[in-house]
Amino acid sequence: MTQNMSFLRKFFLYKCLFALTFWNYANLSVEDELFTSVSNNFPENGSNKKIKSLPPLYGKSPQCKAGSDWVVIQNTTESLSLSEITNCNVKKLVAFLSNFRQGSRLQNLTLTNVSVNWNYLMEIFQTVWHSSIEYFNTNNVTQLSDIKSYNFNYSGTSMKALTMKKTIITDLYFVQDDLYKIFADMNIANMTIADSEMIHMICPSSKSRFRYLNFLKNDLTDLLFQKCENLLQLETLILKKNKFESLRKVSSMTSYMKSLKYLDMSNNLLRHDGAEVQCQWAESLTELDLSSNQLADAVFECLPANVKKLSLANNQISNVPRGMVELKSLEELNLASNRLADLPGCSGFTSLQFLNIEMNSILTPSADFFQSCPRVRELQAGHNPFKCSCELQAFIRLERQSGGKLFGWPAAYECEYPESLRGTQLKDFHLSLLACNTTLMLVTALLLTLVLVATVAFLCIYLDVPWYMRMTWQWTQTKRRAWHSPRVDQGNVLQFHAFISYSERDSLWVKNELIPNLEKGEGCIKLCQHERNFIPGKSIVENIIDCIEKSYKSIFVLSPNFVQSEWCHYELYFAHHKLFSENSNSLILILLEPIPAHLIPARYHKLKALMAKRTYLEWPKERSKHALFWANLRAAISINLLKADENLYEETD
Ligand SMILES: *[C@@H]1O[C@H](CO)[C@@H](O)[C@H](O)[C@H]1NC(C)=O
Ligand SMILES: *[C@@H]1O[C@H](CO)[C@@H](O)[C@H](O)[C@H]1NC(C)=O
Ligand SMILES: *[C@@H]1O[C@H](CO)[C@@H](O)[C@H](O)[C@H]1NC(C)=O
Ligand SMILES: *[C@@H]1O[C@H](CO)[C@@H](O)[C@H](O)[C@H]1NC(C)=O
Ligand SMILES: *[C@@H]1O[C@H](CO)[C@@H](O)[C@H](O)[C@H]1NC(C)=O
Ligand SMILES: *[C@@H]1O[C@H](CO)[C@@H](O)[C@H](O)[C@H]1NC(C)=O
Ligand SMILES: *[C@@H]1O[C@H](CO)[C@@H](O)[C@H](O)[C@H]1NC(C)=O
């Protein structure tokens, strides 16, 4: 294939060239060629026109100073390293190098800062080619000009590896083959042309011995080695940092390279949009680096079937489609710095051993990863924006269960959300089992409720807490009322604090318990007892009523006995005196013994109402409660005691 392509350099030079061509080579239609070059779009069938190179812009042989010599950087029997090779000393160098015929001991030659024209460079190469040198390196070959066809004699060489770094061509316009053919047809094992702004390389014209090609950091495009059937021994191809765009074209490039094992396509502009024709990869390809490209999920439709080690780091993958890909040999997968939201399953990658998924967008990784990927020995999942919540607990447990399979644990695993936990290592993030397990939480709540109910029941049954509470409540209510109740105009007939009424059968209790307790206590409570303070000549009822009217309060000691024998005495009084209305403060009921409802005769509405309202003080059987009972009772009586006392004293004065 003849390709008359221009090997062009910087853009301002193109413009410069326009001007030059316009008046120097006006008859040549250079413009078209130029534009196609600028857009990196090379016609496969370039025109067969031979375009002469321009006169060199740079590198015109300067006046050679006498004694301008190279600089020796290293000079041993096996290895020689020289610098500052110019058009002035190059003839001397060629003569010097031709001393090292095949069989001599010099193996390595390195030339740095070489500034010679094309023909001299080729003379150096040709001399080295037929010498004993096995490793030939050039670095910083500048001002390479005057490129034209050179008849290189490829026969019989000791050379194993050629490495050219920073080869800068100042020639603007030349026949592409003249340059590329020299290198493409070198039948050596290793060749590196790096950092040289190279835009193309042609296919070797016969079966090549290249096993290792490294074109790192150039400007190569999808047109490289298309349908090139002469790279059958090539095992390693490095095209890192070039301008490749189509993953499919890259795959078809490899399809002729029957020995290709390792391909580095990292740092290109690769895309793949799925809908295209099927990809065709070399079957031998086992290691592929596609990192730092522009690949999205569709890349999984275009991968070499036998790949063992694959890097897709730093692309735009957001999902590993399940079921679509089957890479049975894949052992190592690098998906770092993509946009994945979860760990991929291993359904398509049954041999996977290493997975790197750092720096993606995984909030809560699914915890069934190691079940789905039993062969994985190492999972590198750090530097993701983990959301520290209950769901993440499962993943943290996974760490413990997996036995050190999480690479970078614990330093690389930190909470990102919620904000309050940002920066906390997952290792230190604990939520109680309870908070995360709903069933457990419900059971616990239920148990707690049961315990509470049991405690309350126990308190009620064995300690009679409700009674204490009721008494305390009544006591506080009474105190409150005492504080707030308005001055009640009782007239000036009051002589007693309280009138006390009870059944004859309960008199023992009244005399032994009630009276002593009330009268002897502080406050000097005066009680009116209808027996004790009996006025002769009046009926019992009259006496009672008299007693009631002279007393500030009325205490009734209620019991079944009282209800059956005495209540009727008061019915009449209740009927006539609104004083004992339900709201009255004057009425104090003491329930000495419970009164079964059926014992209360149906006509005693008032009593029933009072009983129903439970506005009575209950006499507790337990001794321990007596103190509180008396306090309560005394408080109930002591309402407005001062005012009552005033009245009492007025009366006695
Ligand atoms: C390339 O050139 C050959 C012969 O010159 C011609 O037959 C073929 O059609 C050309 N291909 C393209 C793509 O121009
Ligand atoms: C390297 O050293 C040898 C002597 O050790 C000398 O003869 C030879 O000229 C030197 N080579 C260069 C390129 O200076
Ligand atoms: C020659 O170069 C090769 C490759 O760079 C290196 O491995 C080897 O050690 C060198 N030999 C000597 C004698 O410097
Ligand atoms: C490359 O070599 C030229 C001279 O040959 C020199 O001027 C230039 O500074 C060198 N560049 C580097 C990076 O060494
Ligand atoms: C190449 O040239 C540059 C600039 O002149 C100089 O700094 C550098 O040391 C040279 N390299 C060698 C290996 O001599
Ligand atoms: C090529 O080089 C070899 C070895 O130096 C020599 O024998 C042969 O004659 C050369 N061929 C031509 C055409 O110069
Ligand atoms: C060619 O390069 C490969 C990879 O760097 C290396 O393993 C091999 O030893 C090299 N071969 C020679 C002959 O330098």
From TrEMBL:
It comes from the Eukaryota. Residues 494-637 form the TIR domain. One of its GO terms (cellular component) is plasma membrane. The chain crosses the membrane at residues 440-463. It is a single-pass type I membrane protein. PROSITE patterns: LRR (PS51450), TIR (PS50104). It is found in: Membrane. One of its GO terms (biological process) is cellular response to bacterial lipopeptide. Belongs to the Toll-like receptor family. This is Toll-like receptor. It comes from Catharus ustulatus. The lineage of its organism: Eukaryota, Metazoa, Chordata, Craniata, Vertebrata. The gene is LOC116996522.
